[in-house]
Amino acid sequence: MRKIFIAGNWKMNMTHLEAVDFIKDLGYKFKNKNDCDVAICVPFTDIESIKKTIKNINIDIKVGAQNMFYEEAGAFTGEVSPKMLKALSVDYVIVGHSERREIFGEKNEVVNKKVKAAFGIGLKPIMCIGENLSIRESGNAEEFVIEQLAECIRGIDKKNISSLTIAYEPIWAIGTGKTATPEDANVMCGAIRKKIGDLFGNKIAEEIRIQYGGSVKPNNATELMAMTDIDGALVGGASMKVDDFLAIINY
Ligand code: PEP
Question: Which domains does the chain show, CATH number per domain?
Fold first, then answer.
C-alpha cells in the first residue's frame, strides 16, 4: 500500500525570515499524520532556518531542495552539490522541474545524472516529467512522457528505484489554474507505472510513488488523491498559503 506524499515547492519565494514565520504559523495548525508524508522544498537559503524551526516545534515535515548539481565539488560557480545538501540533513531534492528544463535548458541527460547523484549520497529525488501544451494537443503526450521517463531513469540501480518519487506535471497546468482532469492525470500516471513495471518488475511498480502536479488546490485535491495511480501531489502556489497547504494535506 503506497502512502500519499504531499510536497510543497516554494520556487524562488520566501526569504529565510518569511520561511520561519510560515513554518511557525503552519506548526500551530499542523497535526502529524500517519497516512501521509509531507515535505516542503524550499530555496537553498531557507534550508537551515527551516530545519531548526521544524525541530523546535516538533512537527513531522521533511525538507527538500529544489535543485542541485550532480558533481560533488569543484569549479562550478553558483552551483550547490548533493554533499552540501546532505550535510544540511535535507531529505528530498526536486530534479528536472519544468522551470529548470524550460528556463535553464536542463535536458533529460542532466536530470538522469542528478537522480543518480542524489541516490549516490542518500537524498531522495522527486523527479519531474510532463508535456507542454502543444505536445498535449498533438495527441503525443503519453509517448513523450514515457520517453522522458526512460531517459531520466536510464541506468538507475534497481535497489534505489522504489525510493524515487516521480512527479507527473503537465507544463500547461503549472501555475495556470488549469488542472488535468483527475481521469487524464490518472491515465498518465498509470502509463508511467506500467513503464516502471516493464523496466523493473511489478513489485517495484506497485511500490513507487507517482505524484500529480499542476494547479493542485484545496478544491481539487480530494478528487485527484482518490485516483488509483496518483499517490500524492507536488504543490506550487498553494503550498505558500498555510490554510490551503493544510487543506491539501488533509484532502
Ligand atoms: C510546481 O511548481 O511544481 C507546481 C505544480 O506549481 P502550481 O501548483 O502552482 O501549479
Answer: 5-249 (3.20.20.70)
